[in-house]
Amino acid sequence: MLDRGPDRAELAVEVAPGLVPTGLSDGTAHPLRDGHALPARRFAQVAHLGVVEEDLQALTHAMSIWAQADECRFSVRRVGWSAMPELPEVETIRRQLAPAVEGRVLRELRIDDPRWCAPLAAAPLGAALEGRRLERLERRGKYLIWAFAGEAFLLAHLRMTGTLLIDPPAGTRYERVRWRFGGPGGAGPEIAFCDPRRFGTGELALGGDALDTFLGARLGVEPLGPDFTAAALRAAARGRRAPVKALLLDQRRIAGVGNIYADEALFRARIHPLRPAGTLRGAQLADLRDAVVAVLTAGLGAGGATIDDFRHADGVRGAFQDELLVHRRRGEPCPVCGGEIIKLVAAGRGTYVCERCQRPPRGARVRGRPRLSRG
Ligand SMILES: [Zn+2]
């Protein structure tokens, strides 16, 4: 299940109190795929399911049969998407955290989950940072960079389901790490990293050179920075036979774009995601560059798109999901031409397109149809 991550829909199932579904309450097992029917009279009041979106109807159907048999009320509703936070989501969190923590001394870095910073052990990581003043909280791509005095950098990545909360209550669900800062009168703000699926990471770079090496090996151009020009995108696309969507998702080329914003940018630029990047004309790449900047900027303006487990630092959800034109809108009419939005796989990811607005490349168009034989 976990490897399906980005295409999962998170569902909440609400049923009558006192009934608990075995295999569901841990949020990992899949009742249909696992081949067992939902057992009667063993349901939780609210069970969070990780199931792929396609299974929603099948699950609803199975539960309706079960519910009729048992005369039990239930509802299945989608509570969010397990998609990775992308640049706008990470930047939204950074902007909220920075005023609270910049300039403050880190008193304690409490790491409850050693996997977060492995292979580095929790104790030396804490020792390297505790007692230092946080000079700046920065972002590159999807990394949050905690820049401490003396050029000690903590590089945090939220991955699939991580988020950072300001002053959450003790014992917050899925809490893995807690930063305790000092304040003028003693105790200052506390930041908690919460991450149900535990893919988030924390890494240490000591010295500016180490930071540059770390980022240089992983991240390409910053799409909202001055270097992301049409010429830069042309250079990145030149000669590449991989689909253009793969180019957008490649963090070493363009840092911070993920599945949601790639789909939206390609739709706005009227480019099919399966088009080999190297076959795009200069004007198309210029349009695509503008579209990437536009969707990321709009996402930032809306406080990011709300993804399950993604919250602002103050616990509020973003709103950009309401402005998505194609992503997760399979079967709905295209907002431009009225054609049907379809879902296909590009760069290994669930991808949403209007093939009237985004003309498929020749190879993709003839796929599945018989070719006429000549002679
Ligand atoms: Zn269309």
Structure description:
The protein is an alpha+beta fold and 375 residues long. The chain folds into 3 domains: 73 residues, no CATH class; 130 residues, MutM-like, N-terminal (N-terminal domain of MutM-like DNA repair proteins, Alpha-Beta Barrel); 125 residues, Helicase, Ruva Protein, domain 3 (Orthogonal Bundle). The chain is built from 9 helices and 13 strands. The strands form 4 sheets. A 4-stranded antiparallel β-sheet has the order 4-9-10-8. The protein has a 4-stranded antiparallel β-sheet with strand order 5-6-7-11, with helices on both faces. Helix 2 packs across helix 8, helix 5 packs across helix 8 and helix 7 crosses helix 8. The longest helix has 20 residues. The radius of gyration is 23 Å and the shape is elongated. The N terminus and C terminus are likely disordered. The site of zinc ion (ZN) has 7 residues, from loops. Zinc ion binds next to loops.
Structural class by secondary-structure content: alpha+beta
Mean pLDDT: 78
Helix proportion of residues, in percent?
25-40%
Task: Just give the CATH class of the largest domain.
Answer: Alpha Beta
SSE string: EEHEHEHEEEEEEEHHHHHEEH
